[in-house]
Amino acid sequence: MNRVLVLGGGQLGLMMAEAAARLGLVVDRYDPERALLLPGTSDLAVPISWEECQERYPVITVEREAFPEAGLSAELAKSNRCVARGALEVIPDRFTQKSMLDKLGIPTAPWMTLDAVEDLNAAVEKFGGVVVKARSGGYDGRGTWIVGEGGDLGAVPAAELAGKAIVEKKIPFRRELSIVGARSISGETLFYPLTRNWHVDGILRLSLAPANASADLQKPAEQMLQRIMEELDYAGVMAVEFFEVDGELVVNEIAPRVHNSGHWTHEGADWSQFDLHVHALAGVPLHALNVHGATAMVNLIGTPFENAWLQHPGVVHWYGKSVRPGRKLGHANLVAESLDGLRAALDAWADVLPEGYQAILDSELALG
């Protein structure tokens, strides 16, 4: 097949379209909010009907988890051509996502539903420190409330969240890791190495890949992701975020799409996650991946584009979005022969990194 439709009009779909163009394939994007089609990498939007979509696109994929409840995008997301259909029925709701993980026997933080206000106190008594998460709609720290052991519960709008949230045990993790992998239409799989991630206020600020001292964790991570993709009959790229706890992996979140923590693959591997996603859907064999040393991915958040960045080490990917606080507007990838070799390159980006990035690099180096 040589034509794929991605539901969503954002930068992830655009990067899929760019990857497809290099292979002589076509990825078109459907913007649900405008109800218009963006052909390939073009910004010239045109209308399209259900019948035209059925005629043109044998495969439909997604760049996000949530869509309007009605309209063409909702119909396409539920159609049998959507390779993420099963994932969209499970992953966006944290209750069904956690229930699936429990069913599969995949480790995740102990949890319970927040059905009534008094359940929050019961969770604190049971777990100590807790994390309250809205069942749906949370992203980049929104819809999440962290309460340490003995902490103040007053900041959690429990009455408003009753019946719409879960409560997890707060996990004392060593570091945050993620794995990005792909499953093809025919069931073939391929995985990138584990990545070390650093979040500040719930937003990913820095990824280091491959994660240091992760050889013993790589295979378990691959097995968990493969089981999830098979359970959901999913095709394309998927990501799983983990906590590392006492040398074991605990699943935190699942993303049924290309993922921010996989952006390092643009410059850090022979095939980017966007290339891999298109390959998986178009029937192109999933070739072995070569990683180019060590890569740091720096998120560019809430700040206008600076021409001076082009003189910094690395490659800038800018999304062309309007600027607002907390918004992911681009990323930069820095590649070195070794993790230690990234230090000077990262220091050049100190003006866009929160304080503490050097400690993250030092802690990663100390592991091995």
From TrEMBL:
Annotated residues for binding of ATP: 94, 133, 168-171, 176, 199, 252-253
Occurrences of domain ATP-grasp (ranges): 98-282
Keyword set, alphabetical order: ATP-binding, Ligase, Nucleotide-binding, Purine biosynthesis
Pfam families recorded: ATP-grasp, PurK_C
Top-rank EC class of the record's enzyme: ligase
InterPro entries tied to this protein: ATP-grasp, ATP-grasp_carboxylate-amine, ATP_grasp_subdomain_1, PreATP-grasp_dom_sf, PurK, PurK_C, Rudment_hybrid_motif
Catalytically driven reaction(s): 5-amino-1-(5-phospho-beta-D-ribosyl)imidazole + hydrogencarbonate + ATP = 5-carboxyamino-1-(5-phospho-D-ribosyl)imidazole + ADP + phosphate + 2 H(+)
Pathway(s) where this gene product acts: Purine metabolism; IMP biosynthesis via de novo pathway; 5-amino-1-(5-phospho-D-ribosyl)imidazole-4-carboxylate from 5-amino-1-(5-phospho-D-ribosyl)imidazole (N5-CAIR route): step 1/2
One BP term from GO: 'de novo' IMP biosynthetic process
EC code(s) of this entry: 6.3.4.18
GO annotations of cellular component type: cytosol
One GO MF term: metal ion binding
Quaternary organization: Homodimer.
NCBIfam families: PRK06019.1-5
Similarity comment: family membership: Belongs to the PurK/PurT family.
Protein role: Catalyzes the ATP-dependent conversion of 5-aminoimidazole ribonucleotide (AIR) and HCO(3)(-) to N5-carboxyaminoimidazole ribonucleotide (N5-CAIR).
Name by which UniProt lists this protein: N5-carboxyaminoimidazole ribonucleotide synthase
Organism of provenance: Alcanivorax hongdengensis A-11-3
